[in-house]
Amino acid sequence: MALRRVTINGEEVLRKVASKVENIDKDLLKLIEDMKDTMYHCDGVGIAAPQVGVSKRLIVIDIGEGPIVCINPEIIEMSGEEIDIEGCLSVPEVEGEVKRPKNVKVRFINEKGQLCNMKASGLLARAFCHEIDHLEGILFIDKVEKRRSRI
Hints:
The protein is of the alpha+beta class and 151 residues long. The protein has two helices and eight strands; from the N terminus they run H-E-E-E-E-E-E-E-H-E.
């Protein structure tokens, strides 16, 4: 198990547009494993590479059904709308209501180099949107409609 330090709001890497991943090599595979370990250790449902200090277009999500690794993810379709509470490993002690698409279709490359398309709704759609926002330098607090402190 290799844990990485989670970057916190205010650190520059969280506000940069992340670079496209060009190669799947042993360093990237190690980063993926470290991100999984860090996400699970912090009880997160998703993590983006900038959250561990790496400005690459890479996210890992697990809403309880096993990890989904997405390299260079992009949302290609979205529909519906719902508001729910979000938090973020990089913005500790804050939660807020955020409006997100109810349904999304995401295109990405998995860790085996395969091009994937995945449809998601509810929490999974929200997690995709939240983590992909990180790759654009956007934090959930930028979209919060109603903010509150975690207790």
